[in-house]
């Protein structure tokens, strides 16, 4: 599979190959997700939206952290909605978790609904990053937080690890300064960034 096809299938997993990718992401990104959520505190009654929930394992991590709260996951791939729903079946049946087919560009939620929005390995593919960040900000409560966690970003060893992906249409890899600028443009009031360049990981926390 060439790199363009890899990016395409990760951007919107579909069919049997897409389901396989979703299952692989559940396994391979677990350590990244755990590192990312360690940067933020969780109130047990928080309401959280996970944008681009993929195969749903991040949703399950979040659901365990907010036992008295509620977790919504959205994905624009019907196959990922199915996988995430199945993985979180018991929590979905108890209404602790809800998985919805939707796009980040038009979130089906009222203003100020969530205490936190998470985005794991997804904002590379958002259609209009600043406008989509504004839409995320809209559904956050005042003082609510956005957590972005990615395994690729532009940094000092960018040439070695990320350049092939940066050249593919449909995928955008951002630097820490890019995140600062985009989140400021989207109206967020503060931004904190942590990097683990040895792992090629970045976590961004922004406050509405």
Question: Which features would summarize this protein structure in a list?
Answer:
single chain, 208 residues, alpha/beta, Rossmann fold, seven-stranded mixed β-sheet, 10 helices, 40% helix, 23% strand, globular
User: What is the overall pLDDT average?
Assistant: 88
Instruction: State the fourth-level CATH superfamily.
Output: Vaccinia Virus protein VP39
Measured by DSSP, the beta-strand proportion falls in: 15-25%
CATH architectural category = 3-Layer(aba) Sandwich
Which sequence of SSEs, written as H and E, runs from N to C?
Answer: HHHEHEHHEEHEHHHEE
How many angstroms does the end-to-end distance come to? 40 Å
- Structural class comes to alpha/beta
The helix count comes to 10
Helix content: 40-55%
What is the domain total for the residues?
1
Our Rg estimate from Cα atoms comes to 16 Å
Largest sheet: 7 strands, mixed
Q: Got a strand count?
A: 7
Q: Tell the overall outline.
A: globular
CATH class: Alpha Beta
Characterize the quaternary organization of these chains: single chain
Strand order of the largest sheet: 3-2-1-4-5-7-6
- The CATH topology label is Rossmann fold
Q: Which stretches of 5+ consecutive residues score pLDDT under 50? A: none
């Amino acid at each position: 599979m060439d790199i363009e096809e890899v990016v395409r299938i990760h951007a919107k997993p579909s069919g049997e190959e897409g389901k396989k990718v979703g299952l692989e992401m559940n396994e391979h990104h677990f350590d990244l997700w755990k590192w990312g959520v360690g940067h933020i505190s969780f109130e047990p009654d928080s309401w959280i939206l996970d944008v681009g929930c993929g195969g749903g394992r991040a949703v399950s991590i979040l659901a365990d952290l907010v036992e008295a709260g509620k977790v919504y996951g959205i994905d624009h791939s019907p196959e990922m909605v199915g996988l995430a729903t199945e993985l979180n079946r018991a929590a979905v049946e108890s209404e602790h978790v809800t998985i919805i087919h939707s796009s980040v560009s038009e979130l089906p939620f009222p203003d100020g609904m969530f205490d936190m929005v998470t985005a794991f390995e997804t904002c590379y593919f958002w259609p209009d990053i600043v406008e989509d960040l504004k839409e995320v900000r809209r559904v956050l409560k005042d003082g609510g937080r956005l957590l972005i966690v990615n395994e690729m970003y532009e940094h000092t060893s960018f040439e070695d690890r990320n350049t092939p992906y940066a050249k593919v249409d449909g995928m955008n890899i951002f630097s820490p300064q890019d995140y600062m600028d985009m989140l400021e443009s989207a109206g967020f009031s503060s931004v904190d960034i942590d990097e683990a360049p040895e792992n090629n990981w970045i976590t961004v926390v922004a406050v509405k």
